[in-house]
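Researcher: First entry.
Model:
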Amino acid sequence: MDYRVEELASQAGIRVDTVRYYQGKGLLPAPRREGRVAWYGDAHLERLTRIRELRDQGLTLSLIGRVFSQESDDPGGSLVEALVEEHLTGRSYTKAELAAQAGVPEAFVTAAQTAGLIEPLLLEAEERFSEADLSMARAGLELLEAGFPMQELLRLAVRHASHVQETTEAAIDLFDGHVRRDAAGEERDPADVTQQFRTLLPVLTRLVAQHFQRTLVSRALGKVADQGSSEELRDALAATESGLEVSVSWR
């Protein structure tokens, strides 16, 4: 069945400008044009329904775009399901609940959200934060209690987040080119790719965390040595390097 944009929006229960916004974001295919008239079909309506379902699950438009991209390569949806599961696992919190659970002012959560360090999900038109956001907020509180100024801590976190985004994009490209496809560029079995994703995600996370830890401790050891710090501090840093263990598990 064919629809004009107003008819499509009505069928989907959304506004016309929302249809055009999704199209501009690349989430909705372009319509068929006959002269100056744009015609949409049932596939467009199905896509809008799918967008609503994913939004109701709490996915951002950016993540929805990734889901659609992956679905086109994995018609069975196994890897998509794994990605969504990883993103949504665990209890969710309102901003007030997150602040209370973490023991931080709500303004701290707002500042972290504004800086792009945490991104709430939208569940039934309400912002909800994840278990990962709670862990980050608690870690932030520990740093504040240790004497880090909040504004400088946030600026440092934003710089780190920017580098992490660049690195993860490169990691995704590597996964796509060398795990999801074989040496000849052919798609591997979706079930095998999904299992690889589940196996490699915690391994990669552990690797990054351990590298950051080792680099931080090594640089700190070098700095305290240059500054002639006490033997006790150097011993403590060395013990930290050998005694800490990063543990990551797939829930």
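Researcher: Second entry.
Model:
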Amino acid sequence: MNERVKKATEARKDSFIRFVQELVRIPSFSDHEGDVAKRIEAEMKALGYDEVRIDKTGNVVGRMGSGDTVILFDSHMDTVEVHDAQNWVSPPFSGDIVEGRLYGRGSVDMKGALAASVYAAAVAKELGLLAGKRVYVSGTVCEEYCDGESLKTVIGDMPKIPDCCVICEPSDNIITLGHKGKAQIRITTHGVSAHGSAPEKGVNAVYEMAEIITRVDALNKRLFTPGAPHGTIVLSDISCVSASLNAVPSECGIYLDRRLILGETVEDVKKEIEALIAGKRASWEVGTLRHTSWTGDPLVYEPIHNSWKIDEGHPLTLAFNRAYEETFGKAPDKYDFWDFGTNAVTPVSMGIPTIGFGPGEYKLAHMLNENVEVEKLEGALAFYANVIDTL
């Protein structure tokens, strides 16, 4: 166990936990992260970062060191919204600590991890662990809607492509080697409008969609494999266009969320979608999402990605194993694999070795009474500092 890192992180423990609480107390829903970005910027400056800036997209980026080996720690600043505040055991923006757990929206997803990475770079500088290294810590915007889009700006502004990327999404402090792929698809059926009193003169687009919906359900059942990794597909939205409530709908649309396991590909999904619409008056397209960041920068997200996994024998994985032993006094007994998407899609698509680790149980993200163990936050801080030392 690295005693120097242990002592340095323990010395900063109180200020670190206060910082997590402050971040949780600042609402930062997607596209409204400005206040929390400015708070992170101020903390980085107070901790002695060599460079701190907020870029055109609204991401906050800090740098420690100036060596040739470039390490990027990324966390997103945005959170999902809260519509059930009255039901929380502690107010969702309180940052209260109750029986060793810190409560609040974003405590798990993922302000605790973001704060840990901010402080880990400061610990590394304090202990002289930055020789030959350049550590970037980013707090990115709009991840909840646009996986990886804002991270493109962060990496694009760097003078050198990172040698590795750490995605700090919640994993309950378990090294995470990858995540499922995703394809979000919009299917539209095309009808012919007619008066409601003479439906035989039209073509009802909703009826055209009905069989497609049945096919979607059947596909999801075929994908299901009990007790084993499997892909999924779900209809997450439906709408129709009609001249009036007295008319045959001329158009119907559904939005599909397809998750891919290792071995499935985007090309496989495209063939599935063609089969879903076969014989129907229908077309499909990728369900492109468009957002505007808090700085006014447009984000256009194409949600179609393969799954990915870093090899257990990759040098980055082995470095993480060593950092884990230094932090927790034992070798990792297992790895994890996220079943959701993250900003990793950007560095992975660029060929940058990427791996994950973060405090908090990801099943608590987005939920009523979202909370994280304080002990896990402290463990993540020490682990990130040891990662910087090990790489």
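Model: Note on the second entry: The two ends are 16 Å apart (CA to CA).
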